[in-house]
Design brief:
The chain has 555 residues and is α/β, with parallel strands linked by helices. It folds into two domains: 324 residues, Purple Acid Phosphatase, chain A, domain 2 (4-Layer Sandwich); 185 residues, 5'-Nucleotidase, C-terminal domain (5'-nucleotidase,  domain 2), CATH 3.90.780.10. Helix content is 27%, strand content 27%. It contains 15 helices and 32 strands. The protein has a seven-stranded mixed sheet with strand order 8-6-5-4-1-18-19, with helices on one face. Strands 9-10-12-15-17-16 form a six-stranded mixed sheet, with helices on one face.
Length: 555
């Protein structure tokens, strides 16, 4: 070849881009899928938030994840912000093992630890140790050990040693690699966990502040080569109705961080959706009980391997719809969504294991019995009435509203439904309290963040506009007499609040504590069977009455 031809060829070679060079310069696309507060929701359910359409179920959840993985091969991250397995009979029958099996098979990358992941306590079907030899953390340690993905907890410390807890497969952070990008993932757990799980199960643990704990491990993450950082935190975020601003522990965490410290936060614990930026940091949270998922699309610079901040896309919570509105299969991410056979078979196996319990019919609900934590709920009234009915010596029955988890629809009531209403293995405990102490408990419920104390045997007239601790105007007992400050009353309650759960420390000052060792769930089942038909009790047990000048009573 002559010299001129060689020169020309060389020039052409230099001027024409090499094959694939444009592709190499393109951003790396990552798809983040987040769940939180799954609460053992292995089966499909009808969700009120979507007009009663059927959503969820492991056979459909797996189909959505599969579709996203096909849409972005090798670029999908699947993670959870905690509270995996407590809440349904289907999960509790194996103390949460069924959920871990599903998460293993579907291929989760990491999970935070939630407060309710401690609920099962020691191994065996009792939620707190029955002897000094039992490990109150037995179940959670076993579930974490069985997981093929890491559980992450950067702020859980051993009180005795002052060091991070040392359990198999529990780490403060993990490194996940996708498309050549090292992604550091940190796990954090709500600092109020000792109040929102059974205190007896976590006495040996300390839950340290979120921000300090996160910053303690960030340097190690960066040193390990992580160029992207995701935080899984089992603490909540919400929106202030008046200002529209983000509120809650996770909003506070995000505002305290410096730009570039964290690229994405997945939160939980508050059971409500959120998708937005707080102080520039993308924050996501989705509905509870496996009805939906959070999703973010991140683009990463191929040279620096850092997230291109202004190109992160946060999607609204996506529901795991089982079908289109017309009943046909629906399309998602370019794929037809239909139940995956292996998980259909798995569900059949799980259902067979509890079929004998699901078939137990206890009675009928004459109308829907709603569950909520604002004032008294029909479900709360039913549960506390059952407690009083079980022991005629009980003057007042009390159950924390946060410990009741779902409503009872009109129609046949099965034992399986009652399990979901009262999923925690709390026994009926009797304690002698003064009228003053009962008032303190009621005031705490009216003022605190965890919902009112459900009651039977009392009617409380209160002013919501008064200062916390001074809201009760009148407290009348079932005999029609006002609660007497100095008189002792026999109160029936549960182990959780007796040990200070939800901040109800007053119970511990009571006298003559007697644990009946009878599960409250069993008492409720017996009560429904005895009554045959149950319905909403007439008249509210908490009756708001505004006493300020110019205001009228509510009813």
């Amino acid at each position: 070849m002559c010299r001129a031809a060689v020169v020309l060829f060389t020039l052409l070679f230099l001027l024409v881009p090499a094959a694939g060079a444009e592709d190499l310069a393109a951003p790396i696309r990552l798809t983040f899928i987040g769940l939180n507060d799954f609460h053992g929701a292995l089966e499909a359910r009808h969700a009120k938030v979507v007009g009663g359409r059927e959503v969820g179920g492991i056979d459909i959840i797996a189909a959505y994840v599969q579709a996203l993985r096909k849409a972005n091969p090798g670029g999908v991250l699947l993670m959870d912000a905690g509270d995996l397995y407590q809440g349904t009979l289907l999960s509790a029958a194996s103390e949460g093992k069924a959920v871990i099996e599903f998460y293993n098979e579907i291929g989760f990358d990491a999970s935070a630890v939630g407060n309710h992941d401690f609920d099962f306590g020691p191994e065996g079907y009792h939620c707190v140790p029955s002897s000094p030899d039992e490990d109150s953390l037995g179940v959670i340690k076993k579930r974490i050990r069985e997981s093929r993905f890491p559980f992450l907890a950067a702020n859980i410390f051993d009180r005795q040693t002052g060091k991070p807890v040392q359990w198999d497969n529990l780490e403060p952070y993990a490194i996940v690699v996708r498309k050549g990008v090292k992604i550091g993932v940190v796990g954090l757990t709500s600092v109020d966990t000792p109040l929102t799980t059974h205190p007896a199960n976590v006495r040996q643990l300390e839950f340290r502040p979120l921000l300090v704990s996160l910053r303690r491990v960030l340097p190690a993450l960066r040193a390990a080569g992580a160029s992207v950082v995701i935080v899984l935190v089992h603490a909540g975020v919400g929106v202030d109705e008046e200002s529209g601003e983000a509120i809650g522990p996770v909003a506070d965490l995000a505002r305290a961080l410096e730009p570039g410290e964290v690229d994405l936060i997945l939160s939980g614990h508050w059971h409500m959706p959120f998708a937005g930026r707080v102080q520039g940091i993308p924050v996501m949270q989705t509905w509870a009980s496996g009805v939906s998922f959070a999703r973010a699309d991140l683009e990463v610079d191929p040279l620096t391997k850092r997230v291109i901040e202004d190109r992160t896309v946060l999607h609204d919570s996506t529901f795991f719809f089982r079908s289109a509105r017309n009943g046909r299969s629906l399309l998602f991410a370019g794929q037809v969504i239909k139940p995956l056979p292996q998980f259909v078979r798995r569900l059949r196996q799980y259902r067979r294991s509890i079929a004998h319990l699901q078939r137990i019919r206890l009675g009928q609900a004459a109308a829907d019995l709603a569950h909520h934590t604002e004032l008294d709920s029909p479900v709360g009234n039913l549960v506390t009435d059952a407690m009083r009915d079980a022991d005629q010596s009980i003057d007042v029955a009390m159950y924390n509203s946060g410990g009741l988890r779902t409503s009872i629809p009109k129609g046949v009531i099965t034992f399986g439904r009652i399990y979901e209403v009262v999923p925690f293995d709390n026994s009926l405990v009797k304690v002698m309290l003064t009228g003053v102490q009962i008032r303190e408990i009621l005031e705490h419920g009216l003022a605190g963040p965890y919902g009112v104390m459900e009651i039977s045997g009392l009617v409380v007239v209160f002013d919501p506009d008064r200062q916390p601790g001074q809201r009760c105007i009148s407290i009348v007992c079932s005999d029609g007499k006002e609660l007497e400050d100095d008189r002792l009353y026999t109160v029936g309650t549960n182990e959780f609040v007796l040990n200070g759960g939800d901040g109800y420390y007053t119970f511990a000052r009571g006298r003559n504590v007697h644990n009946t060792h009878t599960l409250i769930r069993e008492l409720v089942a017996r009560y429904i069977k005895k009554q045959g038909i149950v319905g909403p009790a007439e008249g509210g047990r908490y009756r708001p009455k505004r006493t300020a000048r110019g205001k009228k009573t509510a009813h």
